[in-house]
Every structure is written in structure tokens, then in C-alpha cells.
Design goal:
CATH class of the largest domain: Alpha Beta
Radius of gyration: 24 Å
Order of helices and strands: EEEHEEEHHHEHEHEEHHEEEEEEHEE
EC number: 7.6.2.9
Helix content: 25-40%
Number of domains: 2
Bound molecules: adenosine-5'-triphosphate
Mean pLDDT: 91
InterPro entries: AAA+_ATPase, ABC_SmlMolc_Importer, ABC_transporter-like_ATP-bd, ABC_transporter-like_CS, Mo/tungstate-bd_C_term_dom, P-loop_NTPase, Sulph_transpt1, Transp-assoc_OB_typ1
Structural class: alpha+beta
Low-confidence stretches: none
Enzyme class: translocase
Number of strands: 18
CATH superfamily of the largest domain: P-loop containing nucleotide triphosphate hydrolases
Oligomer: single chain
Strand content: 25-35%
Keywords: ATP-binding, Nucleotide-binding, Sulfate transport, Translocase, Transport
GO molecular function: ABC-type quaternary ammonium compound transporting activity; ABC-type sulfate transporter activity; ATP binding; ATP hydrolysis activity
């Protein structure tokens, strides 16, 4: 099921939450809505789900105008961060719920629940209560429940938001693999760029109610459309009026043509990498390199160095009016 969002505007009172949003999500794709808090990601997801209405613009699902269709008729499944589970029902009953209210035959429901619990690796927990699961297992149960009714579209609002870093990472890998198996068109909201870069086929970057850029993880990382996307997807520093990633700043200990000179003012060693701050006439520049490289350069505070962009580095000119996230 493809989703087409065309010319969507949404205000809450005077506040513009979404401004002329246009996004096309092809069938079977895993798409991330990425952006800072308050940018409008959840509002867009809720409009796609039919839980919120746009002031203007249209939502089409598989070519059919769904703009005025109620949520329950859109054939979408959703999972929110604080998912409401039926606490007194077992895991299997929770997953079966949607099928039972649709009055599907008992044997069919049992078989489907069994299959789904296996898919989310909760086969052995079918008879537990949700309170007896870990946070990550509960989120997987929520996903099984959303998938039970065979939605054509799966919408996930920060599905792993409340979990610790390690569990988030496991669930990310798992979501990617699950998606490769079931291929349901999936849209998930995240403010975590690493999560989006790792999991999504395509990323829609949303900031202050507007779409900043749409592209594959590589396109966004290698060809950011503007300062905001460049800064939101990874660390940046300014060199000769351009934003560049600190690991793309080349450091030499003797003069180089066109290089900017400065003095190392701070050296920080974190695991395998060394981060150095170089104070130049044009301000401080951050560089990152391996420990071995730093050692071979003799990089210490007080040393004079020459900085230039690595060949092929991604850079964008600094736009003075934009704040970098
Ligand atoms: N029902 C509402 N009434 C008034 N303002 C709202 C309502 N829902 C959302 N907003 C505002 O719209 C803006 C966008 O909210 P939204 O939840 O879509 O952002 P988000 O990008 O999903 O952020 P987060 O990552 O924090 O969830 C926010 O400033 C929010 O305060």
C-alpha cells in the first residue's frame, strides 16, 4: 500500500504544526519520519492514521482518497510509545484481541497468534501476563498485536522511545529483519538519527512543520540539502565558511597550500578516537581521528597545525540565518 501526502497544512490555534507537507511513501517501504522534538512528526503520523484531520491537503492510501476516511476504515495498524495493553489478559489473548472482535474462527485465531508470537520471538511467553515481560518484549507484543489484523500500513510512533539504549538497538535490528520478512508498508517516527540511518529505506527529515529533505540514508548523509540536515544527521564543524564533519578535517603539521592554520587548544581521548580542538583566526575547529593517527602527528596542546577538507568530503556552505541542530 503506497501512501501519498499532498499539500498538508495543520494549525493548532495560531501555531503552524505542518506547512505544505508533500511526501510519497511507496508500497512495502520502511520509512522514517526524523526530526527534532516538536517538529510535527507525530502530527503527520496521526493525520496519516486518521486520528487527526488536516486543515487542508489530501491523504491517499493506495491511490484512494482517504482524507475523510475514519481511522478504523483505513486498514492501518499502529503502535505508540506508551502502548495500552490489556493487563489482565495473557500475551496470546492480547495479540488475539483484534481477530476475536472481528469474529474470526477460533482455530484460525489460534494459528495466527501462534505464527505471530513466533515471528516476534515470544513463542514461549504466550501464557504470561504483560507485566511479566520486559519493556522490549512488551513492545514486540504490541507489534504482534498491530500485525494480527493484517494491516496494509503499519504506523509506529517512537516505538522504542522509552527503552534503554541496548534494548533499542536490539529492537531496531529486529524491526529491520521483521520488515524484510513481512514487507508491510511501515512508517515510524524517531528523533534519533542513528536509528533512522540504520533501519530505514528512506528518511523524511521534518523540522518546524516542514519537510527539509527526503532521501535514502546515504543520500541524506552524503548530499544534505542544507545546514539543518547536515547538522541533524551527524556532528559538524566550520572550516573556511563551510560545514564539514570533524572526521573529514585533515590535519597536517607543516604548511599546506590553502590550509587554515591554528593551534591545538584541547585534546580529548575517548576509546579509539581522539578529538582535538584547533583554535584558528576564524574560530575553533573540531577534528576527530584515530589514536594511532594522532600519535603519529604528535598531536598535543600548543602544537601548530594546518587544516583542510579531506578530498571528497561532504560540505555545505554555512547559512548564517539557520541554527544547526
Ligand atoms: N493537540 C494539540 N494541540 C495543540 N498543539 C499541539 C497538539 N498536538 C501537537 N501540538 C504541537 O504541535 C507541534 C508538533 O507536535 P508533534 O507531536 O507533531 O511533534 P513531534 O515532531 O512528533 O515531536 P516529539 O518528537 O516531541 O513527539 C508541537 O509544538 C506540539 O506542541
Amino acid at each position: 500500500m503506497s501512501i501519498e501526502v499532498a499539500g498538508v497544512n495543520k494549525k493548532f490555534g495560531d501555531f503552524v504544526a505542518l506547512e505544505n507537507v508533500n511526501v510519497t511513501i511507496p508500497t512495502g517501504q520502511l520509512t522514517a519520519l526524523l526530526g527534532p522534538s516538536g517538529g510535527g512528526k507525530s502530527t503527520l503520523l496521526r493525520i496519516i492514521a486518521g486520528l487527526e484531520t488536516a486543515d487542508s491537503g489530501t491523504i491517499s492510501i493506495n491511490g484512494n482518497d482517504a482524507t475523510r476516511l475514519p481511522a478504523q476504515k483505513r486498514n492501518v495498524g499502529f503502535v505508540f510509545q506508551h502502548y495500552a495493553v490489556f493487563k489482565h489478559m495473557t500475551v496470546a489473548k492480547n495479540v488475539a484481541f483484534g481477530l476475536e472482535i472481528r469474529k474470526r474462527p477460533k482455530a484460525e485465531v489460534a494459528a495466527r497468534v501462534d505464527e505471530l508470537l513466533k515471528l516476534v520471538h515470544l513463542g514461549q511467553f504466550a501464557h504470561r501476563l504483560p507485566s511479566q515481560l520486559s519493556g522490549g518484549q512488551r513492545q514486540r507484543m504490541a507489534l504482534a498485536r498491530a500485525l494480527a489484523v493484517e494491516p496494509q500500513v503499519l504506523l509506529l510512533d517512537e516505538p522504542f522511545g522509552a527503552l534503554d539504549a541496548k534494548v533499542r538497538k536490539e529492537l531496531r535490528d529486529w524491526l529491520r529483519r521483521l520488515h524484510d520478512e513481512v514487507h508491510v508498508t511501515t512508517v515510524f517516527v524517531t528523533h534519533d538519527q542513528e536509528e533512522a540511518l540504520e533501519v530505514a529505506d528512506e528518511i523524511v527529515v521534518i523540522n518546524e512543520g516542514r519537510v527539509e529533505q527526503v532521501g535514502s540514508p546515504d543520500q541524506l548523509y552524503d548530499e544534505p540539502a542544507n545546514n539543518f540536515v547536515m547538522g541533524f544527521l551527524g556532528e559538524v564543524t566550520t572550516l573556511n565558511g563551510r560545514l564539514v564533519r570533524p572526521h573529514d578535517v585533515e590535519v597536517a603539521t607543516s604548511p599546506r597550500p590553502e590550509a587554515l592554520t591554528g593551534t591545538v587548544s584541547r585534546v580529548l581521548r575517548i576509546g579509539f578516537e581522539v578529538r582535538a580542538t584547533v583554535t584558528t583566526e576564524a574560530g575553533d575547529v573540531t577534528t576527530v581521528m584515530t589514536r594511532t593517527h594522532a600519535r603519529s602527528l604528535g598531536l598535543e596542546s600548543g602544537v601548530q597545525v594546518w587544516l583542510s577538507e579531506a578530498a571528497g568530503a561532504t560540505t555545505v556552505p554555512v547559512e548564517p540565518t539557520t541554527t544547526v541542530g
